Prior knowledge:
By secondary structure, this protein is mainly alpha-helical. The chain has one domain.
Amino acid sequence: MIPLSVVWDADPVAFSIGSLEIAWYGVLWAAALLIALWIFARMVKREGLDPRLVDSGFLYGVFATIIGARLGHCLFYEPGEYFLHPFMPEFPWIKLLDIRGGGLASHGAAIGLLVGLWLFARKWKFPYIWILDRVAVMVPLSGALVRLGNLMNSEIYGDPTSLPWGFVFVRTGETVPMHPTQIYEAVAYLAIFFLLAHLYWRTKLAEERRGVIFGLFLILLFTVRLLIESIKLPQEAWEQAMALNMGQILSIPFIVGGGIILWRALRRPAQPYTDMPLAGNAAAKRKK
Length: 288
């Protein structure tokens, strides 16, 4: 007998425009990026900074995230297909950019975003940690929306479970309830978002304690990922024989890095920002 569960048979297509089908996954990715843009615009306005930072930061962040997510999937999960192909001279490299073909890795997105934000900080000549602390607030909310997109695609779910909230993913041929790990991650990421948003908006940590928010973000988000990955089905067949799957292995350096950043941030004295690109009124006040 199948235990009490949720029969999940959601259509991954949100709507169609002629012959073009728009998937929920794409809609939720777009929503994640637009909400992040709105939050960043509020941060820039709150801190009296040059409003041009908003559009510039958004472009750097979006392109770096998407490129990193795609290349991360190809490198971490399908290296034999994309980087170790026996006929490399004939390999169609354009497939690396075929996002519609599937395959985006969140760890690759994280690495790509870090690189893109570093380039953004260099362009505007301000401390790299400033943007990291602020993007750390937005990313968990964006991650929650992306995981809901995975749920709509009936993908990246967990092992069989007898818990009453297990999901039977009909579209992938499952006949028993599985852990809806997409929902577990989404809820955990929302909790992290509310915590970090509180620290940014209600305390002076982001203004005076450089790196505290970013360090906490890395520790909390990737610890959640490390734990939930333990009940996920392997994304690739070759992961089945591994003590830790690829998602867990890739999470460990982020957790360690977050611990180091947080430890160093707490040891430093308070250090307000005095080297940011200011808007007109704020810049005039500082000159006085």
